[in-house]
Amino acid sequence: MRTTVGIIGAGPAGLLLARLLHHAGIDSVVLESRDRAYVEQRQRAGILEQGTVDVLRAAGAGERMDREGLPHDGIELRYDRKRHRVDFPALTGGRSVMVYAQTEVCKDLIALQLKDGGPLLFEAEALAVEEADTDAPRVRFRHEGREDVLECEYVVGCDGFWGVARKAVPAELTRVFERTYPFAWLGILADVPPSHDELVYARHDRGFALLSMRSPSVSRLYLQVPEGTDAQSWGHEEIWDELERRFETADDWRLDRGPITQKSVTPMRSYVHEPMRHGRLFLAGDAAHIVPPTGAKGLNLAVGDVVTFARALTHQKETGSAERLDAYSETCLRRVWQAERFSYDMTSLLHRAPDATPFEDRMQLARLERIAGSRAAETDLAEGYTGFPFG
Question: Is 366 exposed, middle or buried (0-12, 13-18, 19+ CB in 10 A)?
Fold first, then answer.
C-alpha cells in the first residue's frame, strides 16, 4: 500500500489532518488500532477553542457542532465562597469556546472520511515506523490478521502517548520535559442538567472541583483526589456531598443531583517531547505533549499541530519550498509551551497540594483576587483559555 501521508491514529487530530489534506488534494491513509465503535465512544475532551471551532467549520465538519454544541462566552471562578465570571468576548475581541465532546468530533470526521476521503482502516495496528530519516518512510502494521507495509512520503504520528511513532525518534536526539502531580481528577457523568450555564472552576481548601457538561441534559463534574485513587472507592452520594462542599457560595446557588452513569480517575501530568519531527516523521498531539486538563488544551493543541503540518505541506506542494515543513517542530513548540504554561498556571492556581502551607493557600486566594480585580490579569486568562494562534 502506498500514499503521500501515512497517518497513525484516528483520534480527532488524525481524522482532521486527513480532512485537511483531502481539501488540499493530498492523499493519505489513516491507520487506527481500535474499532470504529471504540473511537466513537472514547470519552476525552469537551472544550473546543475558537481556533479549533473555526478549523472544523472550514473543513466542512461544523454543521452538527453548530447545531448541537454549546457556545460559551465565559467561565466562573469560585473561591472563598465568592463567584467571579470571566467574560471571554469582552476581553479577547470576540473570541469564545464551544462545548462539544471529542466523541462527537470523531463521529463527524469519520463520517466525512468514509464518505469522500482516503482509506481509513480500523483495527489496523501500527507496529513500527521505519526509515523515518529517509525520503521513503514506511509504517509496518497488522490488519485483518496479517502484516502489511504502508509506504509513504511522510508519516504523522497521532497515536497518543503510548503509540509507536515517538519510539522512532532516536533517543540521542530527544529531550523530554515532564512533571507529575500528586493529585488526580475523579470525573463523573451524570444524567442531570448542568447546574450552571457555563463551566465553574472552584478552588477550595478541600481541593479543586469543576462543573462542566456534555449536553443540556448531561453534566460532567470533577473532584481533585489523591494520586492513585480508585474511582470505585467513592460512593455516589459521597461524590455529590463533596461537590456541594467545594462549590459552596455565599448566595442561594444550589447543585442539582442526578444518577451517575460513569466515573473514572484521570492522572495529572505535564510532558513535552522535543523535537516533534525526525526526518519525515512528524509527531502531533499526545504523541509529543500532554497537559493537565485544567486548561482544556489537549485536543486543541493536537488540532494546532495538524493544522501546522497541513499548511506546511500544502505550501510545499504549491511553491516547492520545504521551509515550513522544516520549521514544523519549532513552530508547534512555541504554541505548545505557551499552552503548557497556561495549563500549569491554572492547575497551580486552583488545586491544593497535599503539603500546602497556610502561606501557599493565601497566595492562591491573592492570585484569584488579582484576576477578579484586574482587567489585565483577567485578559491574560481569557486569551489563554480561548486559545493561542495557530502557527
Answer: exposed
Which tens digit of pLDDT belongs to each residue from 121-177?
A: 999 999 999 999 999 999 999 999 999 999 999 999 999 999 999 999 999 999 999
CA dist., res. 248 & res. 244, Å (int): 6
Q: Strand ranges (DSSP E) for the chain?
A: 5-8, 28-31, 47-48, 70-72, 74-79, 82-87, 97-99, 120-121, 124-130, 138-143, 146-151, 154-157, 175-190, 199-203, 209-215, 218-226, 260-274, 277-278, 281-283, 289-290
Q: Which three cell numbers stand for residue 325?
A: 515543513
**Angstrom distance (rounded) from CA 265 to CA 344:** 19
User: What residue has cell string 512555541?
Assistant: 334
H helix or E strand, kind and range, residue 381: helix 375-386
Residue 70, CB-side half-sphere exposure with 13 Å CA sphere: 20
Contact 44, 161 (CB under 8 A): no
For residue 4, the tally of other CB atoms under 10 A from its CB is 16
Show which residues are catalytic.
72, 201, 293, 297, 385
Q: How far is CA 297 from the centre of its chain?
A: 5
Q: Please count the CA atoms within 13 angstroms of the CA of 283 that sit on its side-chain side.
A: 27
C-alpha to C-alpha distances, 298 to 45, 284, 301, 387, nearest whole angstrom: 7, 11, 5, 11
